[in-house]
Amino acid sequence: MDLAVTDRTRLRRKKERGHFDWATVSAILDEGFVCHLGFVDDGGPVVIPTAYGRIDRDLYVHGASANHALRTTASGMEACVTVTLADGIVLARSAFHHSMNYRSVVLFGRATKVEDVDEKRRAMLAIVDHVVPGRSTDTRGPTEEELRATLVLRLPIVEASAKVRTGGPIEEPEDLSLPIWGGEIPLTLNAGQPVADGQGDTRVPAPAYAAAYRRPVR
Amino acid sequence: MDLAVTDRTRLRRKKERGHFDWATVSAILDEGFVCHLGFVDDGGPVVIPTAYGRIDRDLYVHGASANHALRTTASGMEACVTVTLADGIVLARSAFHHSMNYRSVVLFGRATKVEDVDEKRRAMLAIVDHVVPGRSTDTRGPTEEELRATLVLRLPIVEASAKVRTGGPIEEPEDLSLPIWGGEIPLTLNAGQPVADGQGDTRVPAPAYAAAYRRPVR
């Protein structure tokens, strides 16, 4: 089931860049792992970066129970979660036509504080596994106390849209005679070799998901 | 001159991660090139990714004159601009203590629509040079028509704060006896070899700032 277009998610301009199919939206959400959570606090906008996870059609974010941003977002007001993947820088012959290649998802909705302890535990592990696929089964799971100390929010992935730009620069025909290079600088996220913290049993080798870390790409 | 702490930029928790000195804030703004612009539209939050530039203590964003997000932001309401650099993923022995190393800046203020044509031109070129240092002098500058077609917003970098996390996981002492690897996966932005668009004079070589693209790091 794909996503319904609403007044908030409809693209007003460059409609060809808009995508409302679940495959496109979920692939961007799965490749990213930092979202920018927007909420309204005291009448003004606040945008904070945070990790997130996904279980089916729900997006989860979490933080300390005392976290002001999450507490405000949990109060039943509208939230906006945006995930952006920067794929490349587009160099045109003119300053005006410079651009970026990117994939982004903008998700609107009301976040709910997760009260159920089992869902809370599943969400915490889903966030760990979203950021480092395969990690959660290697870790010591959350205690009752840690679950109490954590605020988890659920946001249904219903009112969402993706925006995608690919390709080279759009040029004015007359600019093509200028002796200026045009094209794209591709960008990727690079994971370096894992650095052990030197605590505990230092003979434990870095697991494969850390030594060969990469984001899921569909 | 460093930045005054306000109710909005004061850190409520983990205060040791907060930075209000100009050197830290400006270094993060200069290394990043995609910001997440938050504004309130019809009572709810909206967060969109966009490129930006900086001239002294002003941050500039731009878009088409018809851009709804920028027009809304230009209407004199509060805006929030957040820039996030993801530096690493922190793997703890427990799911609970997983974390991210990052540097972020959150900037609050009212954006002003730039009406002065010279400032508009300078801002457009500053954004080009912010994303690709050194590029603007190689490009065909904006025409009067292109300047009219572009909406440029200025946001003073006054009410801003940086947040920085570095280092390995914080562990519960009893978790250190577990046979679980702990440490950091470092993340960097990687620029690949530039891809020419195949238009115009294809003998023009990729300039050095594209062939050896990297973000300014202080």
Explain this structure.
2 copies of one chain form a homodimer. Chain A contains 5 helices and 12 strands. Chain A is α+β, with helices and mostly antiparallel strands. The first copy, chain A, has a single domain (15-186, 201-211), classed as Pnp Oxidase, Chain A. In chain A, the strands form 2 sheets. In chain A, strands 1, 2, 3, 6, 7, 10 and 11 form a 7-stranded antiparallel sheet that branches. At the A-B interface, β2, β3, β6, β7 and α3 of A face β2, β3, β6, β7 and α3 of B. β11 of chain A pairs antiparallel with β11 of chain B.
What's the arrangement of secondary structure elements?
The structure is a homodimer of 218-residue chains.
Chain A: E1 18-19, H1 22-31, E2 34-41, E3 44-51, E4 53-55, E5 58-64, H2 68-73, E6 78-91, E7 99-110, E8 112-113, H3 117-131, H4 144-148, E9 150-156, E10 159-165, E11 183-191, E12 195-196, H5 208-211
Antiparallel strand pairs in A: 1-10, 2-3, 2-6, 4-5, 5-9, 6-7, 6-11, 7-10, 8-9
